[in-house]
Design goal:
- A hairpin with a 4-residue loop joins β2 and β3 (57-68).
- Strands 1, 2, 3, 4, 5, 6, 7 and 8 form an eight-stranded antiparallel beta sheet that branches.
- α1 runs parallel beside α4, α3 packs antiparallel against α4 (177-204) and α6 packs across α7.
- 40% of the residues lie in helices and 25% in strands.
- The chain has helices at 20-30, 42-45, 129-147, 177-204, 210-230, 234-241, 243-254, and strands at 36-37, 46-52, 57-68, 72-81, 87-95, 103-111, 114-122, 169-173.
- The chain is of the alpha+beta class and 257 residues long.
- It contains seven helices and eight strands; from the N terminus they run αβαββββββαβαααα.
- Bound molecules: 15,16-dihydrobiliverdin (DBV).
- The site of 15,16-dihydrobiliverdin has 18 residues, from β4, β5, β6, β7 and α6.
Amino acid sequence: MTPERPSSTDPVVLPGWTWQPFLDDAVNALHPLNIQPYPVAEEFLQKQDITGSRSKPVTVTTATWACRTEKFRQVRAACVDAGAAASVLNFVINPLSRFDLPFFGGDLVTLPSGHLLALDLQPADKSDEQHTRPVWNRLMPIFERWREKLPDGGPIPEEAQPFFSPGFLWTRLPLGEEGDHLIETVVRPAFNDYLRLYLELAAEAEPVSDARRDDLLAGQRRYTDYRAEKDPARGMLTRFHGSDWTENYIHTVLFDL
Ligand code: DBV
């Protein structure tokens, strides 16, 4: 059988998926960068299974869009569409450690209990001012503009703090019209503002020394190891696609540094 998406840069199109416009915005924003496919095994490019109960089966599709560019080691979007059961866009840009850049991290999650929305430019080393200050100076005004329009998402685990910037936009919204309206008028423009700033920072970034690169790489590894270990999607993905597939997906695609 010919796979539906032989390449990681082939479009992901999931009809009715909540986050399709966000993914389309992101892919369009990346297009000027001479994007190249990123190697992703076929079973992770697009995977379909049946979940739910025997009397109410639900089709679930998980698709991965990914690329690399001159300055990005890996850009990847994990796209989950299980209808009313779950809808997720988890989008991460992993810069090459040769450039002094944070990660772009977006976690847009719709569950039967509501929407969970996280956006940040996440530091590789939060204690390194040379790494954080130029980013935070430009991120904070954008953060301030959008966060006053959204309810606070509540506490996040203490152990996760080192991996977030002070510009971490984090909210929970109810399902229904009110939530949908905020997603369209606040979360989507915020997502695009964070991404625009990130791409500006990347465009300006110059290669660093080998010693500096090694420090940045060590920070990137701490971040990636944490994300792989604590991935909040592990339970959901295991229910949908099984444990072997999920562990391989987490370690060889989502957090593969
Ligand atoms: N999160 C991922 C990946 C996902 C994913 C790869 C492929 O890192 C989805 C999917 N996140 C996902 C799901 C949930 C969350 C929750 C399904 C709900 C889990 C559940 O309730 O069962 C932000 N995401 C969360 C939470 C936080 C984040 C703080 C709540 C954690 C919890 O309740 O335990 N994820 C976290 C984060 C980034 C991120 C800050 C980067 C901006 O990607």
